[in-house]
Specification:
335 residues, alpha/beta, Rossmann fold, 11 helices, 11 strands, elongated
Length: 335
Amino acid sequence: MIDYWNQFHFDAPWWLLTLGIIPLMVWWQYFGKKKEVPPIVFSDLSGLPSEKSLKERLYYYLPILPMMAFAFFILALARPQLNLTEEKVKAEGIDIMMAVDLSSSMLSKDFNPDRLEVSKMVAEEFVSKRRYDRIGLVVFAGEAFTQCPLTVDHNILKDFLESLRVGMVQDGTAIGMGLATAVNRLKDSDAKSKIIILLTDGVNNTGYINPMTAAEIAKQYDIKVYTIGVGTMGNALSPVNRGLNGEYYFAMSRVEIDTELLKNISEMTSGKYFRAIDRASLENIYAEIDRLEKTEIEVDVFKRYKDEYRKFLNVGLILIMLSFGLRTTIFKTIN
């Protein structure tokens, strides 16, 4: 409804000035007209106390109907229109795969409420800014899989991001697997620029693909990798065990991120390594990536208009017919 009125305008607004006649019509109807003196004087009960019926009270307001109809006719003459804007976009496309760590350590409480939730929220904000880019999502822990292939439907992508949960993948940190899966999704892309944003909070400890091997493959396909290490410096309240009921037990433990590996991956692929120690720093990292990987866009805007006067005209006609119908039936008078 808000969007409707934002796109609404009058093509001939000077007709709206005639709406000023309506208050004069109301004044004349109820206050300005001289009461007619009946040619024949007859006795009535007006001097006695009485209560007016509903019909009598409604009859008093009957003249308002044609006034309202007049107002809608004026609005129709003012040519109400809706702006229907179309955009033709010419963009130097950038394809982006986001690789997100879903290992249990992403539940650590050094971010509020935890690393994963903050990573998801900041990633969604980043996606919202990349209006014309194709973006996809890979998740990894002990294994890796594509959660969402490259798409321009960012609403679907954000739904996938929101649905991410620790436990979707066997636990562990297979950085090489996550990177290789993302590379596989980008290797056949014809985009001018192809990038991977790999976010992890640990050390590669499983998987059958070496992270540097995956980085070499990315380099061969001219894919740039931005790596983000997530976690505070020192110790953090982290999952240390899991009960039979599936609940995690937390304790203070040392934050270990393979900074050297992540730096090497980024350097090999002409990307950049970042360290996020809190939400603000993570937001700044995504903002910097957004600045580094700008899409050159040429937009042609075409405007068309849809006339809406028929709606106002129809309401006016309905009010006129209603007024006529009431005067000739329920409120019929004898002259």
